Amino acid sequence: FQNRTGKVAPEHRRLARYETMTLDDICALPVEGIAAEPAHLYLWVPNALLPEGLRVMADWGFGYKSNLVWHKVRKDGGSDGRGVGFYFRNVTEMILFGVRGKNARTLPPGRSQVNMIETRKREHSRKPDEQYALIESCSEGPYLELFGRGERKRWETWGRQADADYAPTWKTYAYNSAVVAE
Question: Which pTM value belongs to this model?
Answer without folding.
Answer: 0.81
